[in-house]
């Protein structure tokens, strides 16, 4: 990772509103080349909105987003719904909207850890294979920054762990930066260089160690689902408008 290098993307004092309601307030974030940054936060805390703003799909009402000139982004959505009656194999899917040589498709599938699925029908893939196909498509153009919005949601625990391991390897192999949203807190803690805890604003940010060492988090981490809520409760000396998270943890 190159924290000293110019960031791939940096977000300053970002505010996003849907109508009157501010969904994001004064958010700062940056991703350096080769760095894995994970956004965590309760449902409705603005994680997807932040990513959409970075991708340019949502307008912000204040603040600014700076992208490295010529920045190439690869995006892996949480899910993609394809017409199951549409015959389309994986290689063809990778060739949309621009036809690519079969060798490039094979290389991307190898990188994504699924070299064998090129001729399989998209509709016949398992959830894990489908997400790998989306990953292959996102890395086809050798992006500088890979953005994943809960891309392992719906996979079982070993499947999700394998998926994140693969992301780690892609980062090692290509040097791309990674910005992802994840609810898999165990994975977040082991696979991220930096964690941003979001709840409309940035509650806390730092290395996984710093975030995980918050007393509540340490006390509760690993105690079933309660551990998952602990991250959102650490060292808060203020109340949120979304206190359902706190309620859910109690
Ligand atoms: N297009 C929209 N119009 C109006 N409100 C929206 C829109 N998209 C999202 N919101 C609201 O903005 C808030 C943040 O949504 P967002 O999807 O960014 O949260 P999230 O942290 O990604 O949630 P989750 O973990 O459930 O995916 C929510 O209250 C949501 O209802």
TrEMBL record:
Keywords: ATP-binding, Cell membrane, Ion transport, Membrane, Nucleotide-binding, Translocase, Transport, Zinc, Zinc transport. The keyword Ion transport applies. Gene3D superfamilies: P-loop containing nucleotide triphosphate hydrolases (3.40.50.300). Pfam families: ABC_tran (PF00005). One of its GO terms (biological process) is zinc ion transport. Residues 9-224 form the ABC transporter domain. GO terms for molecular function: ATP binding; ATP hydrolysis activity. This is Zinc transport system ATP-binding protein. It comes from Roseivivax halotolerans.
């Amino acid at each position: 990772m190159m924290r000293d290098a110019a960031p791939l993307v940096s977000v300053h004092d970002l505010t996003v509103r849907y109508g009157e309601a501010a969904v994001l307030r004064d958010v700062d974030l940056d991703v350096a080349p080769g760095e894995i940054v994970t956004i965590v936060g309760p449902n409705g805390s603005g994680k997807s909105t932040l990513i959409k703003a970075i991708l340019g799909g949502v307008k912000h009402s204040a603040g600014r987003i700076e992208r490295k000139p010529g920045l190439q982004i690869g995006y892996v959505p949480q899910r993609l719904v394809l017409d199951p009656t549409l015959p389309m194999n994986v290689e063809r899917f990778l060739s949309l909207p621009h036809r690519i040589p079969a060798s490039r498709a094979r290389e991307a599938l190898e990188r994504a850890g699924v070299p064998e699925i090129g001729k399989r029908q998209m509709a016949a893939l398992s959830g894990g294979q489908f997400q790998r196909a989306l990953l292959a498509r996102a890395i086809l153009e050798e992006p500088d920054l890979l953005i994943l919005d809960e891309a392992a949601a719906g996979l079982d625990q070993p499947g999700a762990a394998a998926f994140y391991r693969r992301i780690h390897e892609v980062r090692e192999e290509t040097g791309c930066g990674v910005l992802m949203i994840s609810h898999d807190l165990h994975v977040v803690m082991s696979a991220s260089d930096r964690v941003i805890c979001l709840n409309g604003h940035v509650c806390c940010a730092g290395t996984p160690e710093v975030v995980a060492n918050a007393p509540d988090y340490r006390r509760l981490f690993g105690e079933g689902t309660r551990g998952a809520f602990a991250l959102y409760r650490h060292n808060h000396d203020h109340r949120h408008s979304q206190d359902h998270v706190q309620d859910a943890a109690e």
